[in-house]
Amino acid sequence: MVAEENSSPEVLAQPNGVQYEAVIGLEVHCQLLTQSKIFAADANAFGAEPNTNISVITLAHPGTLPKLNRKAVEYAIRMGLACGSEITRHNVFARKNYFYPDLPKGYQLSQDKGPICVGGGIPIKAKDPETGQSYQTTIQLHHIHLEEDAGKSIHDGDEWATQLDYNRAGTPLIEMVTDPTIRTADEAGQYLTEVRRLVRYLDICDGNMEEGSLRCDVNVSIRPKGATNLGTKVEVKNLNSIRNVMRAVDSEFKRQVEVTESGGRITQETRTFDAATGLSFAMREKETMNDYRYFPDPDLTPVHISDDWLATIQSQMPILPTELYQKFITHYGLPDYDAALLTDSKELADYYEAVCSHTSNYKAASNWIMGAVKGQLNEKTIRDRQFPISSDRLASLITLIDDGVVSQTAAQQVFTLMIAQPDHSAAELAKTHGLVQNRNTDALQSLVEEVLAAWPDKVAQYQKGKKNLLGMFVGEVMKKSKGSADPKLVNELITKTLQAT
């Protein structure tokens, strides 16, 4: 069926007059940045040779016993505190039974009845797909629970067999489950963007979707607009980017509308998303809770979160992006655009504050970071803190401009030289390369008089009221000085000379 011309992808109107809306829930898995796995001492590291970060516990040898990683618990609590969740004090792990080759034990250790964090929400900004207007809303969380990751099945490494890499098996995860209150692909994308920003600020996950450390499953159902009952949900997996999450939402929504309108029935199933075609394909019927046969793990003792332990974690919480955004506006006096861009990543925000510890020209620091500095960076270099020049060196360049030693134009050249020659200061490079501004009044006055003498007709026009010619005179003097003249001083000298003429 075809949507009406002006209807949005998330609200499709059909020829029979029925309008459908999407009901979306997200399950986001975040790999925690602990040094070891959640129940074993194996290294928790990406990129190692297959099946090297493993042990008898990971491989489920008989007689081995798991032991819970304390740091994984603390990281989960950090995320719960950041989201305003209630922290569960008495925690029990359960065995979630299913038989996939990448799960050595035949079950996954997870939390069933009592997740470590309950409720809470994440504020986002999204756009109305019909009007294009921005609005704010909060995506409500159902819970956050701790669990272990499975290994990785590799289907394209051998022509005849599936290869298994157990390095990832046992990696600590938090799974963040939203309530089914998301309505549009943009809301889903903005929520996932905010989750990635939060885990990076909290330093509990690197948020790298390409490497699989942040993964998202999407649950989509449809219902007539205005209805309150939930339809049959379909889970879409294999989503490795925020853009693909949004594409999968739109694609699955449209597919379900077409199936319903053609008289078909939506099946509760798991589907995989093909990023090349933008379509999803059925993998298997969705398991139910009974299929997993949950029961408390007999090898793990319950974990109690004491008042003192919780208070210690709270005291170590870093400043969150929303708080930092307000600080950048109130303390540093930045406009909304600057504050939003600089707090987009913790690394960029930290770098900005480091620059501001060496200069009081906060707006200039923002301009340089959003412009020249960010032009040298990509997501990876920001995450790895590979800034082109150190914070104190950038601040020293800003000071040279504020003191009139170099012009704004010359400063761009100095910046490039500072990247190429990290052992030299901004002042040294400006002097060595002849970029220091000429503030010699007598020498500049001579250049002013030469320019005015060369353009008598323009001087006459200026005297008759064509004041915009001042810029031309300044430009000509700057040319004669080969860019070394202080433009502010040149402006003053030309104005004074013309007034005396």
Automatic annotation (TrEMBL):
For the Asn/Gln amidotransferase domain, which residue ranges apply?
A: 350-498
Reaction catalyzed: L-glutamyl-tRNA(Gln) + L-glutamine + ATP + H2O = L-glutaminyl-tRNA(Gln) + L-glutamate + ADP + phosphate + H(+); L-aspartyl-tRNA(Asn) + L-glutamine + ATP + H2O = L-asparaginyl-tRNA(Asn) + L-glutamate + ADP + phosphate + 2 H(+)
Sample GO molecular function, one term: ATP binding
Q: Which InterPro entries match?
A: Asn/Gln-tRNA_amidoTrfase_suB/E (IPR017959), Asn/Gln-tRNA_Trfase_suB/E_cat (IPR006075), Asn/Gln_amidotransferase (IPR018027), Asn/Gln_tRNA_amidoTrase-B-like (IPR003789), GatB (IPR004413), GatB_Yqey_C_2 (IPR023168), Gln-tRNA_amidoTrfase_suB_CS (IPR017958), Gln_synth/guanido_kin_cat_dom (IPR014746)
Query: Which keywords annotate this record?
Result: ATP-binding, Ligase, Nucleotide-binding, Protein biosynthesis, Transferase
Q: Give the quaternary structure.
A: Heterotrimer of A, B and C subunits.
Give the record's family classification: Belongs to the GatB/GatE family. GatB subfamily.
Q: What is this protein called?
A: Aspartyl/glutamyl-tRNA(Asn/Gln) amidotransferase subunit B
Source organism (scientific name): Spirosoma agri
